Amino acid sequence: MELLREILDPNFLFRNSLLVSVMIGALAPLFGVFLVMRRMVFLGVALPHISATGIALALSLHVWLGYYDGGHGSNERLLALMGSIVFTGAALIILALLERRDRGAAEGRIGAAYVMASAASILLLAKCPQAERGWLSLFKGEILAVSDKDVILGASSFFALTTILLVFRKELLLVSYDRALAIVLRKNVAFWDIALYTLIGLSVSISVFIAGPLITFGFMLIPPQIAQLFSRSMRQLGIIAFSVGGIGAFAGFYAAIHWDLPIGPVNVAVLGVAYL
Fold it and tell me: Which helix (H) or strand (E) holds 203?
């Protein structure tokens, strides 16, 4: 109980880390629901690693150009965020274009993208020891050192993205759940597909930039799959996924602080136990 009171204290040392964990834990599943609904779970695994590759490339370029100062300056942070967004957006565009051509299995393309992104991240950081030392905690899911700017960035971004998701949820659900009916009702399926992928891509980019790929795809995929076991409607699916993610994030944070373990892996482990 003493640790719980300490965590809930407004002056708690790792308050920002707790806020970010619960925020991503509660809101990322709302976007992951659409990946699960579309049977594109593997895309939810691949995108965070592709986003991380963008961060690794951006920081490596900064090192090679001679401007790196340890990964904590405003220029490095902005460059890393842009690398995350650009790589995620480019991956989604390429995968969507290949899907429209209907050549090869979509799962194979996503799997190839995942493997190549993971290998590229490791190779880029291996060639840049400075960037590797400064950002290794991000890829391990260790998010104890979260700045106020990151909290504000995450909160404002997720507020905007979640608001758009909720406002246009009927159209997004229709094209995701019953594309044939959407076509009959003369909905612009291509437009809503692009809109959904944009929302998912931005949410992934922001999450990876702040908390790393492990936490991102853990919360984006596991809570919706848990919610599927109990929900009987889309509303219930979203509410349960939101609740499981938020509660799991807090429980994982508590366990990580209690046992002095990395927050990201503990969060995912807690979700895995809940799923079982």
Answer: helix 189-211
DSSP per-residue string spanning 135-197: HHHHHHT--S---HHHHHHHHHHHHHHHHHHHHTHHHHHHHHH-HHHHHHTT--HHHHHHHHH
Go through the chain and tell me how many residues it has. Answer: 276
Residue pLDDT tens, the chain, 276 long: 788 888 988 888 889 999 999 999 999 999 999 998 888 888 888 898 899 888 888 877 766 666 555 545 566 778 888 889 999 999 888 877 776 666 556 777 888 888 888 888 878 777 776 666 656 666 666 677 788 989 999 999 999 999 999 999 999 999 888 888 888 888 888 899 889 999 999 999 999 989 888 899 899 999 999 999 999 998 999 999 999 999 999 999 999 999 989 898 999 999 999 999
Which residue from 144, 156, 264, 147 is spatially nearest to 202, judged by alpha carbons? Answer: 156
Region of residue 212 (phi > 0: left; psi between -120 and 50: alpha; otherwise: beta) = left
pTM score of the predicted model:
0.88
Q: Which residue has the tokens 């020891």?
A: 129
For residue 73, the SS3 value is coil
